[in-house]
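Lab notebook, design round three. We kept the backbone fixed and only want residue identities now. Task for the bench partner: fill in a sequence for the structure below.
Input structure tokens:
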């Protein structure tokens, strides 16, 4: 089985992040483009990966043809060899950059989802704290009562400062 290409990896990342097959995601992005801008960005990066992944395959095939077993490259083939190798390296670097950008888009999606839940989490934490069922403070044994909180500004109730 051949190794997974950059396009295969990107497709798997997108499908995992959105928890849907790529065909359904492409349909959603075309049908309602304003609903999920991060999905559109991810699919644009995947489209760019289609092009660079094909370029990688073309340059690899060219290099394999020029360096096949039993073939001695002619003098004029050396220039084609070096340019194909350089083009392959550039295409691979572009693939890595697109995959990295896709990773950033997926991280941004996760951060946005977490930010949307943040007010609910804070409300839940406040409700637990008000109910008196908060976990014991660090370093405090569970049987010991929690120290009471001071009411008012520090130093209140000690009288006037001189």
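Proposed sequence:
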């Amino acid at each position: 089985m051949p190794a997974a290409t950059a396009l295969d990896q990107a497709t798997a990342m997108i499908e995992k992040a959105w928890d849907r097959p790529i065909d359904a995601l492409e349909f959603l992005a075309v049908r309602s483009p304003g609903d999920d801008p991060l999905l559109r960005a991810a699919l644009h990066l995947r489209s760019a990966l289609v092009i660079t992944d094909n370029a990688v395959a073309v340059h690899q095939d060219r290099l394999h043809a020029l360096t096949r077993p039993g073939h001695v490259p002619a003098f004029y083939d050396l220039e084609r060899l070096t340019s194909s190798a350089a083009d392959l390296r550039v295409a691979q670097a572009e693939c890595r950059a697109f995959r990295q950008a896709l990773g950033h888009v997926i991280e941004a999606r996760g951060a946005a989802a977490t930010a949307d839940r943040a007010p609910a989490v804070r409300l839940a934490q406040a409700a637990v704290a008000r109910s008196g069922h908060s976990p014991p403070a660090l370093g405090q044994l569970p049987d010991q009562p929690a120290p009471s909180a001071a009411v008012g500004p520090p130093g209140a109730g000690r009288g006037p400062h001189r």
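Keep this in mind before ordering anything: The helical segments are 6-18, 22-31, 37-66, 75-131.
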